[in-house]
Amino acid sequence: MISETLQMASIGPAPKTGRRVVVCAGTGCVAGGAYDVLQAFAQQIKAAGINVVAEFKPEQKPHDLRLHKSGCQGFCQMGPLVTVLPEGILYNKVKVADIAEIVSKTLIAGVVVERLLYVDPATRKRCHGVDDIPFYQQQQRFVLRDCGTIDPESVHEYIHHGGYAAANKAYLQMSPEQIVQEITKSGLRGRGGGGFPTGRKWEAARVQQNAKKYVICNADEGDPGAFMNRSVMEGNPHSVLEGLMIAARAIGADETLIYVRSEYPLAVQRMRQAVIDAQVLGFLGPNAFGAGRPLSCEVMEGAGAFVCGEETAMIASIEGQRGMPRPKPPFPAQSGLWGKPTIINNVETLAHVVRIINDGGDNFRKLGTATSPGTKTFALTGHVANTGLVEVPFGTTLRDVVLNIGGGITNRRGKVTADGFKAVQIGGPSGGCLTRAHLDLPLDYDSLRGVGAMVGSGGLVALNQQTCMVSIARFFMDFTQRESCGKCVLCREGTRQMLALLDDIIEGRATGETLDLLEKLAGAVQKGSLCGLGKTAPNPVLSTMRYFREEYDAHVFHKCCSTGQCKALAKPSIDPIKCKGCTACARKCPVGAISGEKKKPHVIDQTKCIVCGVCADTCKLDAVVGV
Amino acid sequence: MMNKRKPESTGRKFVKVCSILDRHGRRPSRLVPILQAVQEEYRYLPQEVLTYVATALDVSPARVYGVATFYAHFAIEPKGKHLVRLCDGTACHVKDSIPILDAIRKRLCLDGKRNTTPDMLFTVETVACLGACGLAPVVVIDDQVHGQMTPASAVALIDGVIAKEAQ
């Protein structure tokens, strides 16, 4: 095993390999039919008489072709994605019917199929590959570098790309102290939400005198609207496993565990395969890396409880209990799983560790800001043109992420509009919202905390002008209320009452007192809860009240929801300037509430209107507002 | 009550549970994965199986029931043949997932708190997030992910399943 490990380490920079066709097989592209595309490729390539190499081989001949699937490439909306290497041509929205053309034109004749290229909506320019697509151009992919190019199910390919060199170095050339020092020097902070310095966490566990220690990888990505960890596990599972191995070496653990959300079946499957492959190669087992100590890894599936993302709740869940948090201290680093020193690190944190050990902590600091070094992946979703996974250095402005990489804010018809931006919800149910005033705010742990938001795990949900902020606050309150484990009274009952107060506002029963009570209760829930879930549960409400107070006031005092999302308070009307009197809405209205002469602005009779929204869906000029 | 059951069927039922228990070394610490495996087998957690698991692990039925009801994935009531899951994560929610849910429920005549059709053909659930936010809004029918849904296209999918069942 030692010789194998060394042989692996001696593999130098990647030698040139033949042509490759990579079909993205992330959850997004699979839903779009990526497996059918892959199968069609296999058949048609064979029919065309091209030699397909099944396994990864460094000495592959130039005219051979390797067809394989990759993990999520982050540009889910344009899937299924097909990349042709070495040219780096990226075809998007590829269908089975397109394969014959790709095979005959690109693979045989070497010509690009123009119609399958991505067209930049801003410039109408056809983009050949990731290098000239604005969505990718403005990113700095550090953790995601190999996601989307390497085959996530081939350990050999990972090794070929320099994989397991860091773990090899950590096990055979570095002492645990040196590893922790390097991580501390890098300034790496936990990517799961809290932003706690990883080096300090490791040091606390390393100094514990105990023969048994554990490392847990927190892959219970519960924040609704975030999928950073899923993409890394699906796209480059070995990088997570390697980071986990380095962490185990640093603190002296011999057992590791990956706790994956069961909503991510593909991630579970790929992580399990990665563990098996690592066992076969002796990176895991009785004598890991030939360093004389055993190391094991188990993949465990969660069972659908958001609170289990909290360290102590996760430990309870692994021990076969209800996933309820307990007070800290003692911290898990002192007394965690089965009472033994345990560290719990997020997927993305562990993936960063690999690069830090390879390149050194000082190099890591070159990216990002002084207090938040490195890069962060954000899941950019909601009303943006380009939804997907975005990795940028800390300190990048919100404008760059949402408007430049994201390609702008879309309206209800999916079209980009210049003045559509209303807010961005960051950090999920624990975070807050950012407004137009924050567009030039550099995104990092400390600047966001200053404005009442947080990085969180990295969910970024863009919201357009047609979004009611009170309903957004209610959405998150409903989520935390359901996910409260019930241990602390203020979290269990307080969130329920906050939700009831928000319902009063949305359904038109609220008075000025409701708002005061909501604010007061929010403060009490923050103070009276044990864990992060309860402590941060009121954040979305407080943050929307802080920045969109006028919307709350309109709901409460004028009984009006200007976006029309709160049906009880919707007051649909027709903008007489935009309306051209085409009569389409009047013909579609099921209750005959719309009247007006042809080619003259129409009006809605509020007494008849049932707020169904058909008129707004029908109007091509967006003249119907407030529904 | 147990005595009234046919011995063969009862026996067969617990043989599977036993093999699951053995696979996990009959350790109470493995309760979550054990219940996951049991649910995989029966598609829900029947009460008599929960009691059996408790006895086999030498823990109280209350502890097993406590765990089974804590986690959202465990169902203590039978589910329909086809599981329709609508993602209501933030990304899907802001892209109007709820009207899709309403349309599906209306198509299947589900009202009030009922989530399973009387003929046991469909169960409709919402889930927090499936991580397929790029495709929002998302509906998953029997593990098949369908992206960028509208109320009409989701109902069409349901109609498709119903038509297949009728054949």
Could you explain how this protein is built, in words?
- The complex is a heterodimer of chains A (627) and B (167).
- Chain A is α/β, with parallel strands linked by helices and 627 residues long.
- Chain A folds into 5 domains: 16-129, 3-Layer(aba) Sandwich (Glutaredoxin); 155-364, Rossmann fold (3-Layer(aba) Sandwich); 375-467, Ubiquitin-like (UB roll) (Roll); 470-557, Up-down Bundle (de novo design (two linked rop proteins)), CATH 1.20.1440.230; 571-625, Alpha-Beta Plaits, CATH 3.30.70.
- Helix content of chain A is 38%, strand content 14%.
- Chain A has 25 helices and 21 strands.
- Chain A has a 5-stranded mixed sheet with strand order 12-11-17-15-16, with helices on both faces. In chain A, strands 2-1-3-4 form a 4-stranded mixed sheet, with helices on one face. A 4-stranded parallel sheet of chain A has the order 9-8-7-10, sandwiched between helices.
- In chain A, a hairpin with a 5-residue loop joins strand 13 (409-410) and strand 14 (416-417).
- Chain B has 167 residues and is α+β, with helices and mostly antiparallel strands.
- Chain B has 2 domains: 2-70, Arc Repressor Mutant, subunit A (Orthogonal Bundle); 82-166, Glutaredoxin (3-Layer(aba) Sandwich), CATH 3.40.30.
- In chain B, 49% of the residues lie in helices and 11% in strands.
- Chain B has a 4-stranded mixed sheet with strand order 2-1-3-4, with helices on one face.
- In chain B, strand 3 and strand 4 (144-146) form a beta hairpin.
- In chain B, helix 1 packs antiparallel against helix 2 (31-42).
- The model of chain B is unreliable at 1-9 (pLDDT under 50).
- Classes of the chains: A alpha/beta (627), B alpha+beta (167).
- The interface between A and B is large, with 54 and 39 residues.
